[in-house]
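Weekly modeling sync, notes
Attendees: S.R. (lead), two postdocs, one rotation student

Agenda item 3: backlog of single-chain predictions. S.R. asked that every request posted to the team notebook include the full sequence so nobody has to chase files. The rotation student volunteered to paste the first one in as an example of the format we agreed on. Action items at the bottom.

Example entry:
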Amino acid sequence: MTKPIPNIMKYMTSTPYHIEKDASLIEAEELMQKNDIRHLPVVFHGKIEGVITSTDINLIKGLRNIDIKNLKVYDCFTPNPFTVKPDTHMDVVLAEMAEKKYGCALIEDNHHLVGIFTWIDALKATQHLLETRLK
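Predicted structure, as returned to the notebook:
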């Protein structure tokens, strides 16, 4: 007898940190550093707009003649992120993340952010599944 594939909500990070798209880039960087995260969902009035990563910020910081003190999140974030519903099966999410090389999936319910699932969460889920289903 096989066990059912879990939904993404089992392994997502609930109520993730997020930032408004009109916040400063410095604020986004500080929020990520303070909380040791690399993917930060971007919202506008509670609705998902995109995602910004620490890699995005580091790339911008490396550009000449760019002062990040003058930039807003909306200047640098990736719009239209990969989003799924909380009841989406993990295999669907993992396949899309692998195929498109996404670093994260944002979990939305009624167009509002309810979670995030990163490749680190995928590794933790894999470890848990291996330990509980293959022993």
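Discussion: group reviewed the output briefly. The mean pLDDT is 94.
Action items: rotation student to repeat for the remaining queue; S.R. to check formatting next week.
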